[in-house]
Amino acid sequence: MNFDYLKQKRILLVDDEQELLDMTESILNEDGFQNIMTAKTVKEAITVSETYCPEFAILDVMLPDGNGFDLMKQIKSTSDYPVLFLTARGEDNDRLCGFGLGADDYMVKPFLPKELLFRINAILRRSYKDENPVVKLPGSEIYFDRAEVIKNGIHISLTAKEYDILFALYRNAGRIVTVDALCEAAWGDNPFGYENSLMAHICRIREKIEANPSRPVSLITVKGLGYKLVL
């Protein structure tokens, strides 16, 4: 099976050592991961998580303004993406605490780059094994594997940008996805200035998926914040 789509996942790296952040980001980049976000404190990590909706996180335990365990609790209170702890704290109690909170893996520094990549890819394969679901809405069905919508028996194709936006909303179904995060999903690392284009794409997506696009019940605007997909 081809797992190239996993390389597009947005990854959050949290560590207070800039050298380690740079090294880990370089390891990921060389393996094909490009959507990397970094933070050095709990506060920065929460802001990044709320703004850019990561799909995987690598957390240190010891941070200047708290610890990775408390950070994970905050992340898991609003999101459900997988987490790997990468830390110098290798005591049994720390490992048990991490796994007890729901961590997907726990690695102790120093580490082998290849082992880190093996573990990351294994977690992503487990967590995102169903990337082509059929999503049934009140007015239509979305087939992500074919990039199309079936509405009233009519097959309607999704453009590449519509697919990217709709899939980002689906991956965070029921949660608000900010305008910035949706622009980044569709236009990449430099998403600024695409807000009007995003609004136009949202209107076209509603035309395709909603029974009554002027009264949407599936793709909802959250004024001042962004959008969410209600399943």
Tally the beta strands.
Answer: 14
Give the biggest beta sheet. 5 strands, parallel
| Overall outline | elongated
- Average pLDDT rating: 90
Radius of gyration: 19 Å
* Strands ordered across the widest β-sheet: 2-1-3-6-7
Terminus-to-terminus distance: 28 Å
Task: Write a structural description.
The protein is an alpha/beta fold and 231 residues long. A hairpin with a 4-residue loop joins β8 and β9. Helix content is 41%, strand content 21%.
Provide the fold topology.
Layout: E1 11-14, H1 18-30, E2 36-39, H2 42-52, E3 56-59, E4 62-63, E5 66-67, H3 68-78, E6 83-87, H4 92-100, E7 105-108, H5 113-127, E8 134-136, E9 141-143, E10 148-151, E11 154-157, H6 160-171, E12 177-178, H7 179-187, H8 195-209, E13 219-222, E14 226-229
